[in-house]
Design a protein that fits this description.
metal ion binding; cytoplasm; 19% strand; magnesium; 324 residues; alpha/beta; nucleotide-binding; binds 6-O-phosphono-beta-D-fructofuranose
Length: 324
Protein backbone atom coordinates (compact mmCIF):
# COMPACT_ATOMS: atom_id res chain seq x y z
CA UNK A 1 0.00 0.00 0.00
CA UNK A 2 1.35 3.44 -0.96
CA UNK A 3 -1.66 5.75 -0.81
CA UNK A 4 -4.82 5.51 1.29
CA UNK A 5 -8.04 7.25 0.31
CA UNK A 6 -10.27 8.30 3.21
CA UNK A 7 -13.90 9.41 3.01
CA UNK A 8 -17.03 10.01 5.07
CA UNK A 9 -20.43 9.04 3.76
CA UNK A 10 -24.08 9.00 4.89
CA UNK A 11 -25.24 11.10 7.84
CA UNK A 12 -22.43 12.99 9.56
CA UNK A 13 -21.59 12.32 13.20
CA UNK A 14 -19.42 14.03 15.83
CA UNK A 15 -16.06 12.23 15.94
CA UNK A 16 -15.78 11.77 12.17
CA UNK A 17 -13.15 14.53 12.02
CA UNK A 18 -11.18 12.96 14.84
CA UNK A 19 -11.22 9.67 12.90
CA UNK A 20 -10.03 11.36 9.69
CA UNK A 21 -7.19 12.97 11.62
CA UNK A 22 -6.17 9.61 13.12
CA UNK A 23 -6.24 7.89 9.72
CA UNK A 24 -4.11 10.62 8.13
CA UNK A 25 -1.55 10.77 10.91
CA UNK A 26 -1.22 7.01 11.33
CA UNK A 27 -0.72 6.62 7.58
CA UNK A 28 1.91 9.38 7.52
CA UNK A 29 3.65 7.74 10.46
CA UNK A 30 4.02 4.65 8.27
CA UNK A 31 5.30 6.75 5.33
CA UNK A 32 2.11 6.30 3.33
CA UNK A 33 0.38 9.09 1.46
CA UNK A 34 -3.25 10.06 1.98
CA UNK A 35 -5.93 11.39 -0.31
CA UNK A 36 -9.05 12.98 1.12
CA UNK A 37 -12.10 12.02 -0.94
CA UNK A 38 -14.76 14.73 -0.57
CA UNK A 39 -18.54 14.08 -0.38
CA UNK A 40 -18.20 10.29 -0.05
CA UNK A 41 -19.08 8.18 -3.08
CA UNK A 42 -20.32 11.24 -4.96
CA UNK A 43 -16.84 12.79 -4.80
CA UNK A 44 -15.28 9.47 -5.72
CA UNK A 45 -17.32 9.42 -8.93
CA UNK A 46 -16.48 13.05 -9.67
CA UNK A 47 -12.81 12.85 -8.66
CA UNK A 48 -13.19 15.43 -5.87
CA UNK A 49 -9.86 14.61 -4.22
CA UNK A 50 -7.22 16.44 -2.20
CA UNK A 51 -3.85 15.33 -0.90
CA UNK A 52 -3.81 15.43 2.90
CA UNK A 53 -0.76 16.15 5.03
CA UNK A 54 -0.49 16.39 8.79
CA UNK A 55 -1.35 20.11 8.84
CA UNK A 56 -4.46 19.45 6.71
CA UNK A 57 -6.02 17.85 9.77
CA UNK A 58 -4.85 20.36 12.40
CA UNK A 59 -7.49 21.52 14.87
CA UNK A 60 -10.29 19.31 13.57
CA UNK A 61 -10.18 16.87 16.51
CA UNK A 62 -12.64 19.00 18.48
CA UNK A 63 -15.00 19.85 15.64
CA UNK A 64 -18.36 18.25 14.85
CA UNK A 65 -19.40 17.43 11.27
CA UNK A 66 -16.87 16.23 8.74
CA UNK A 67 -14.20 18.30 6.96
CA UNK A 68 -14.48 15.86 4.03
CA UNK A 69 -18.23 16.61 3.71
CA UNK A 70 -20.74 13.85 3.25
CA UNK A 71 -23.44 12.80 0.82
CA UNK A 72 -25.78 9.98 -0.04
CA UNK A 73 -25.08 8.80 -3.60
CA UNK A 74 -27.57 6.69 -5.61
CA UNK A 75 -25.18 6.61 -8.62
CA UNK A 76 -22.68 4.52 -6.68
CA UNK A 77 -25.33 1.78 -6.56
CA UNK A 78 -24.86 1.35 -10.32
CA UNK A 79 -22.07 -0.57 -12.07
CA UNK A 80 -21.34 2.47 -14.27
CA UNK A 81 -21.07 4.77 -11.25
CA UNK A 82 -18.61 2.47 -9.51
CA UNK A 83 -16.57 2.14 -12.72
CA UNK A 84 -16.15 5.92 -12.88
CA UNK A 85 -15.17 5.92 -9.21
CA UNK A 86 -12.57 3.22 -9.80
CA UNK A 87 -11.03 5.06 -12.75
CA UNK A 88 -10.59 8.15 -10.57
CA UNK A 89 -9.17 6.14 -7.68
CA UNK A 90 -6.69 4.44 -9.97
CA UNK A 91 -5.62 7.68 -11.65
CA UNK A 92 -4.98 9.20 -8.20
CA UNK A 93 -2.79 6.24 -7.19
CA UNK A 94 -5.09 5.27 -4.31
CA UNK A 95 -4.59 1.60 -3.50
CA UNK A 96 -6.56 1.21 -0.25
CA UNK A 97 -9.59 2.87 1.33
CA UNK A 98 -10.86 3.83 4.77
CA UNK A 99 -14.62 4.49 4.79
CA UNK A 100 -16.31 6.23 7.72
CA UNK A 101 -20.11 5.97 7.94
CA UNK A 102 -23.06 3.69 8.52
CA UNK A 103 -24.33 0.49 6.92
CA UNK A 104 -25.05 2.09 3.52
CA UNK A 105 -21.42 3.22 3.45
CA UNK A 106 -20.26 -0.25 4.44
CA UNK A 107 -22.37 -1.97 1.78
CA UNK A 108 -20.96 0.32 -0.92
CA UNK A 109 -17.41 -0.33 0.30
CA UNK A 110 -17.89 -4.08 0.27
CA UNK A 111 -19.32 -4.19 -3.27
CA UNK A 112 -16.61 -1.85 -4.57
CA UNK A 113 -13.83 -3.81 -2.89
CA UNK A 114 -15.13 -7.08 -4.37
CA UNK A 115 -15.49 -5.63 -7.84
CA UNK A 116 -12.08 -3.97 -8.06
CA UNK A 117 -10.07 -5.92 -5.53
CA UNK A 118 -9.23 -2.83 -3.55
CA UNK A 119 -8.57 -3.25 0.21
CA UNK A 120 -11.00 -1.37 2.42
CA UNK A 121 -11.51 -0.92 6.16
CA UNK A 122 -14.63 0.71 7.59
CA UNK A 123 -15.13 2.82 10.70
CA UNK A 124 -18.65 3.00 12.20
CA UNK A 125 -19.73 6.64 12.32
CA UNK A 126 -23.40 7.38 13.04
CA UNK A 127 -25.18 8.86 16.02
CA UNK A 128 -27.79 6.08 15.76
CA UNK A 129 -25.55 3.38 17.28
CA UNK A 130 -27.24 0.73 15.18
CA UNK A 131 -24.34 -1.16 13.61
CA UNK A 132 -23.36 -4.74 14.30
CA UNK A 133 -19.67 -5.37 15.03
CA UNK A 134 -19.31 -2.65 17.66
CA UNK A 135 -20.78 -1.74 21.04
CA UNK A 136 -20.63 1.96 20.18
CA UNK A 137 -20.52 3.98 16.96
CA UNK A 138 -18.79 7.35 16.64
CA UNK A 139 -21.07 10.23 17.58
CA UNK A 140 -23.49 8.27 19.74
CA UNK A 141 -22.01 9.40 23.04
CA UNK A 142 -21.92 13.05 21.95
CA UNK A 143 -25.50 12.91 20.66
CA UNK A 144 -26.61 11.40 23.96
CA UNK A 145 -24.95 14.18 25.90
CA UNK A 146 -26.69 16.72 23.70
CA UNK A 147 -30.05 15.05 24.24
CA UNK A 148 -29.58 14.78 28.00
CA UNK A 149 -28.72 18.46 28.22
CA UNK A 150 -31.98 19.22 26.39
CA UNK A 151 -34.03 16.86 28.58
CA UNK A 152 -32.60 18.46 31.73
CA UNK A 153 -33.71 21.86 30.48
CA UNK A 154 -37.14 20.63 29.43
CA UNK A 155 -37.55 19.04 32.88
CA UNK A 156 -37.07 22.41 34.57
CA UNK A 157 -39.91 23.99 32.66
CA UNK A 158 -42.07 20.83 32.75
CA UNK A 159 -41.80 20.73 36.55
CA UNK A 160 -42.60 24.44 36.91
CA UNK A 161 -45.86 24.08 34.98
CA UNK A 162 -46.83 20.48 35.87
CA UNK A 163 -46.67 19.45 32.23
CA UNK A 164 -46.35 16.22 30.29
CA UNK A 165 -43.67 16.52 27.60
CA UNK A 166 -43.14 14.28 24.59
CA UNK A 167 -39.55 14.67 23.41
CA UNK A 168 -38.67 13.19 20.02
CA UNK A 169 -35.09 12.10 19.48
CA UNK A 170 -33.33 10.83 16.35
CA UNK A 171 -33.25 7.21 15.30
CA UNK A 172 -35.09 6.39 12.12
CA UNK A 173 -34.68 2.67 12.67
CA UNK A 174 -33.01 2.57 16.04
CA UNK A 175 -34.01 3.29 19.62
CA UNK A 176 -30.45 3.56 20.94
CA UNK A 177 -30.48 7.30 21.60
CA UNK A 178 -34.00 7.13 23.02
CA UNK A 179 -33.08 4.34 25.42
CA UNK A 180 -29.75 5.72 26.65
CA UNK A 181 -30.90 9.32 26.87
CA UNK A 182 -34.16 8.16 28.45
CA UNK A 183 -32.28 6.34 31.20
CA UNK A 184 -29.70 9.10 31.69
CA UNK A 185 -32.39 11.79 31.60
CA UNK A 186 -34.79 10.00 33.95
CA UNK A 187 -37.71 9.77 31.51
CA UNK A 188 -41.03 8.32 32.72
CA UNK A 189 -41.49 6.31 29.51
CA UNK A 190 -39.47 5.52 26.37
CA UNK A 191 -41.02 4.66 23.00
CA UNK A 192 -38.66 2.51 20.92
CA UNK A 193 -38.98 1.27 17.31
CA UNK A 194 -37.75 -2.11 18.53
CA UNK A 195 -40.48 -2.40 21.17
CA UNK A 196 -43.65 -1.34 19.45
CA UNK A 197 -45.32 -0.02 22.60
CA UNK A 198 -49.07 0.49 22.05
CA UNK A 199 -50.62 3.83 23.03
CA UNK A 200 -52.85 2.12 25.60
CA UNK A 201 -49.80 0.56 27.20
CA UNK A 202 -48.14 3.99 27.37
CA UNK A 203 -51.26 5.48 28.94
CA UNK A 204 -51.22 2.75 31.58
CA UNK A 205 -47.63 3.69 32.44
CA UNK A 206 -48.57 7.35 32.68
CA UNK A 207 -51.59 6.51 34.88
CA UNK A 208 -49.29 4.62 37.24
CA UNK A 209 -46.84 7.53 37.30
CA UNK A 210 -49.72 9.89 38.09
CA UNK A 211 -50.82 7.60 40.96
CA UNK A 212 -47.28 7.90 42.24
CA UNK A 213 -47.78 11.63 42.54
CA UNK A 214 -45.61 12.70 39.65
CA UNK A 215 -46.56 16.25 38.84
CA UNK A 216 -44.70 16.42 35.54
CA UNK A 217 -43.43 13.79 33.13
CA UNK A 218 -41.11 13.24 30.21
CA UNK A 219 -41.81 10.66 27.51
CA UNK A 220 -38.98 10.05 25.04
CA UNK A 221 -40.16 9.06 21.58
CA UNK A 222 -37.66 7.68 19.07
CA UNK A 223 -38.15 9.13 15.59
CA UNK A 224 -38.76 5.63 14.20
CA UNK A 225 -41.39 4.64 16.79
CA UNK A 226 -44.21 2.82 15.03
CA UNK A 227 -46.89 5.22 16.36
CA UNK A 228 -45.64 7.91 14.00
CA UNK A 229 -43.54 10.34 16.02
CA UNK A 230 -44.01 12.53 19.07
CA UNK A 231 -46.86 14.70 17.71
CA UNK A 232 -48.97 11.65 16.92
CA UNK A 233 -48.20 9.98 20.20
CA UNK A 234 -49.06 13.16 22.13
CA UNK A 235 -52.33 13.59 20.24
CA UNK A 236 -53.43 10.02 20.80
CA UNK A 237 -52.48 10.04 24.48
CA UNK A 238 -54.39 13.28 25.05
CA UNK A 239 -57.57 11.73 23.62
CA UNK A 240 -57.72 9.33 26.57
CA UNK A 241 -55.43 10.79 29.22
CA UNK A 242 -55.98 14.49 29.59
CA UNK A 243 -54.82 15.13 33.13
CA UNK A 244 -51.70 17.14 32.28
CA UNK A 245 -51.06 20.10 30.04
CA UNK A 246 -49.18 18.46 27.14
CA UNK A 247 -46.27 19.76 25.05
CA UNK A 248 -44.12 18.31 22.26
CA UNK A 249 -40.47 19.02 21.59
CA UNK A 250 -38.65 17.62 18.52
CA UNK A 251 -34.91 17.87 19.00
CA UNK A 252 -34.03 17.21 15.32
CA UNK A 253 -30.69 17.83 13.67
CA UNK A 254 -29.11 19.65 16.60
CA UNK A 255 -28.40 16.09 17.80
CA UNK A 256 -26.05 15.56 14.86
CA UNK A 257 -23.76 18.50 15.54
CA UNK A 258 -21.45 19.75 18.24
CA UNK A 259 -17.98 19.16 19.53
CA UNK A 260 -17.36 15.43 20.10
CA UNK A 261 -17.22 14.20 23.69
CA UNK A 262 -13.97 12.93 25.15
CA UNK A 263 -15.28 9.37 24.68
CA UNK A 264 -15.96 9.93 20.97
CA UNK A 265 -12.59 11.65 20.37
CA UNK A 266 -10.69 8.79 21.96
CA UNK A 267 -12.81 6.14 20.24
CA UNK A 268 -12.34 7.85 16.86
CA UNK A 269 -8.60 8.14 17.36
CA UNK A 270 -8.27 4.49 18.35
CA UNK A 271 -10.45 3.35 15.45
CA UNK A 272 -8.60 5.45 12.85
CA UNK A 273 -5.25 4.17 14.07
CA UNK A 274 -6.51 0.59 14.09
CA UNK A 275 -8.04 0.80 10.60
CA UNK A 276 -4.75 1.86 8.98
CA UNK A 277 -2.79 -0.79 10.85
CA UNK A 278 -5.28 -3.45 9.76
CA UNK A 279 -4.82 -2.44 6.11
CA UNK A 280 -1.06 -2.61 6.55
CA UNK A 281 -1.26 -6.09 8.00
CA UNK A 282 -3.26 -7.27 5.00
CA UNK A 283 -6.78 -7.15 6.42
CA UNK A 284 -9.54 -5.98 4.10
CA UNK A 285 -13.33 -5.78 4.01
CA UNK A 286 -13.54 -5.36 7.76
CA UNK A 287 -15.19 -2.94 10.12
CA UNK A 288 -13.47 -1.63 13.20
CA UNK A 289 -15.41 -1.81 16.45
CA UNK A 290 -15.13 -1.55 20.19
CA UNK A 291 -16.09 -4.63 22.21
CA UNK A 292 -15.86 -4.04 25.93
CA UNK A 293 -12.71 -1.95 26.13
CA UNK A 294 -10.95 -3.58 23.17
CA UNK A 295 -10.75 -2.32 19.60
CA UNK A 296 -11.51 -5.21 17.27
CA UNK A 297 -12.27 -5.94 13.67
CA UNK A 298 -15.24 -7.86 12.22
CA UNK A 299 -15.61 -8.89 8.58
CA UNK A 300 -18.01 -6.70 6.64
CA UNK A 301 -19.86 -9.82 5.65
CA UNK A 302 -20.60 -10.70 9.28
CA UNK A 303 -21.30 -7.11 10.30
CA UNK A 304 -23.76 -6.56 7.48
CA UNK A 305 -25.38 -9.94 7.95
CA UNK A 306 -25.89 -9.36 11.67
CA UNK A 307 -27.57 -6.10 10.79
CA UNK A 308 -30.32 -6.56 13.35
CA UNK A 309 -28.49 -4.63 16.05
CA UNK A 310 -30.10 -5.53 19.35
CA UNK A 311 -30.86 -3.06 22.09
CA UNK A 312 -29.71 -3.86 25.60
CA UNK A 313 -32.78 -5.61 27.08
CA UNK A 314 -31.47 -5.20 30.61
CA UNK A 315 -31.27 -1.44 30.16
CA UNK A 316 -34.91 -1.44 29.02
CA UNK A 317 -35.87 -3.28 32.22
CA UNK A 318 -33.76 -0.91 34.30
CA UNK A 319 -35.51 2.08 32.74
CA UNK A 320 -38.84 0.62 33.89
CA UNK A 321 -37.61 -0.22 37.40
CA UNK A 322 -36.36 3.34 37.83
CA UNK A 323 -39.91 4.62 37.53
CA UNK A 324 -41.21 3.09 40.73
O1 LIG B 1 -27.61 10.12 11.43
C1 LIG B 1 -28.67 9.20 11.50
C2 LIG B 1 -29.94 9.92 11.36
O2 LIG B 1 -29.85 10.90 12.30
C3 LIG B 1 -31.28 9.23 11.55
O3 LIG B 1 -31.64 8.92 12.84
C4 LIG B 1 -32.20 10.19 10.87
O4 LIG B 1 -33.42 9.67 10.54
C5 LIG B 1 -31.40 10.55 9.67
O5 LIG B 1 -30.06 10.47 10.09
C6 LIG B 1 -31.71 11.84 9.03
O6 LIG B 1 -30.67 12.19 8.19
P1 LIG B 1 -30.77 13.21 7.00
O7 LIG B 1 -31.55 14.35 7.51
O8 LIG B 1 -29.36 13.56 6.71
O9 LIG B 1 -31.44 12.47 5.89
Amino acid sequence: IRRIGVYTSGGDAPGMNAAIRAVVRTALYHDLEVTGIFRGYEGMIEGDFKNLVSRSVSSILQKGGTMLKSARCPEFRTVEGRKKAYENIKAAGIDALVAIGGDGTFTGAQIFSNEYNIPVMCIPGTIDNDLAGTDYTLGFDTANNTVIESIDKIKDTAASHNRLFFVEVMGRDSGSIALYAGVAGGAEAIMLPEKDTAIDELIEMLEVAKERNKTSMIVIVAEGDKNGGAYNVAKRVKEKFDFYDTKVSILGHLQRGGSPSSFDRILATRMGYFAVNELLSGNSQGTVGIRGSKITSTSLEDALKGKEFKLDEELITISEVMNI
